[in-house]
Amino acid sequence: MELPAPATYLDLAKMIDHSLLRPELTEEQVFEGCRVARHYDVASVTVRPGDVDLAVGWMEGGGVPVGSVAGFPHGSQTTATKLYEARDLLRRGAKEIDMVLNIGKLLSRQFQFVETELAQMAEACHEAGAVLKVIFENAYLTGELKIIACKISTRAGVDFVKTSTGFAPTGATLEDLRLMRAHSGPNVRIKAAGGVRTLERALEVREAGCSRFGATATISILEDWKKRLAAGGQ
Fold first, then answer.
1. Taking Cα atoms as reference points, which of 188, 104, 91, 178 lies closest to residue 145?
2. Does a structural domain hold residue 32?
3. 98 is known as an active-site residue
4. What pLDDT does 165 receive?
5. CA distance 167 to 40
6. C or N: which end of the chain has fewer Cβ atoms within 10 Å?
């Protein structure tokens, strides 16, 4: 299921989750990242849990929701811990949660555990009117397990499946994105993370079926997109 080619500024801008998750970012850098997200009118700004209170205040009235992460970056926390993380972030004003599924349990073929955890997380997010994105961390998975994770996520009612955290050895590949699109239900959207740093790459992941991608190179991608639109889309 390919998305139509983008035709307007917002068609591409509203695909971007501007990512502010690197551990070494200062508060000043997070503020500047939030300013960028607001100025460029992206889909969301994704911040570390400890930055949510500040980011929600900075982004108020800007039309760009704040997202954060749970079970990040390894997914090995207990389900109760992930649920507490998510509910705490939602109470603080986050509107989107990117969570890492339990990679070890998936690799151990404990599929019922994984599905139960995802269903509980989806319920917690949806009760708060929020979006749940589930990170697979494809660098560690076989093709078979990627497909199984897509089917589990569909049954659990998640909103997005996502390739990676951006901290594993590899990020999003076009092959993985097409596979995830093919094996996820029609109500599940796809998010690419890791390696989307140019306009050309952004257009490629859209063509592969992505509705969102995480980016730190938001400014250069969208400035190049504005230039292309001004030149008539060529």
1. 104
2. yes
3. yes
4. 96
5. 25
6. C
pLDDT in tens, 195-212: 999 999 999 999 999 999
**Burial per residue of 195-225, b for 16 or more beta-carbon CB atoms within 10 angstroms, e otherwise:** bbeebebbbbbbbbbbbbbbbbbbeebbebb
pTM: 0.95
Q: Which residue range(s) make up the domain with 141?
A: 9-229
Active site residue 162: yes
Q: What is d(CA 75, CA 204) in angstroms, rounded to the nearest whole number?
A: 28
Residues in the chain: 234
Catalytic residue, chosen from 17, 98, 159, 176, is: 98
Tens digits of per-residue pLDDT, 28-86?
999 999 999 999 999 999 999 999 999 999 999 999 999 999 999 999 999 999 999 99
Q: 95 pLDDT exceeds 90? A: yes
Q: CATH number for the domain including 112?
A: 3.20.20.70
Instruction: Single out the catalytic residue among 82, 95, 146, 191.
Output: 191
Report yes or no: 123 and 88 within 8 Å, Cβ to Cβ.
no
Name the nearest CA neighbour of 87 among 44, 55, 121: 121
Is residue 95 flagged as an active site residue?
no
